[in-house]
Design goal:
Blueprint: H1 5-30, H2 35-56, H3 64-76, H4 83-101, H5 109-130
Helix pairs in contact: 1-2, 1-5, 2-3, 2-4, 2-5, 3-4
Length: 132
């Protein structure tokens, strides 16, 4: 399905709003020590921000792993975003999957707290590219 410019902009806005909301949810859950939820919300904050970027630039967003690969191919390899952003994105996906699906794995404050600011900065850089 081909999107009109208006439809594309609506989707970009919705995706980016979700990214910002999920970042706020991560910060709120950090305040009460729900570290698995923090991992989940940080990951989804980045996922939705990257999805907004991909949609904005006319790329099809499919799977979670596909979004990571497309981000690397279209933005990191081309020097638009630093490699550290791709590493952070991948790290968050792994932590989120472990926290959500592995009953013996628990994320900790020591793991998650240092990731909040880099995610805030990453989402902010995407917002700048989107004119937010």
């Amino acid at each position: 399905m081909k999107l009109t410019d208006e439809e594309r902009q609506i989707l970009v806005n919705l995706e980016y709003e979700k990214a910002v909301a999920f970042l706020a949810q991560a910060e709120g859950n950090a305040g009460i020590g729900f570290w698995d939820v923090v991992a989940n919300r940080l990951y989804y904050s980045v996922f939705h921000a990257v999805s907004a970027l991909l949609i904005n630039d006319g790329h099809k967003v499919g799977t979670h792993k596909g979004a990571i690969l497309m981000f690397g191919q279209h933005y990191v390899k081309e020097g638009k975003f630093p490699i550290e952003d791709a590493k952070l994105y991948s790290q968050l996906q792994t932590m989120r999957e472990k926290g959500d699906y592995n009953c013996v794995y628990q994320t900790t404050e020591e793991e998650m707290l240092p990731l909040i600011e880099p995610v805030r900065e990453f989402v902010g850089r995407i917002g700048q590219k989107l004119g937010k």
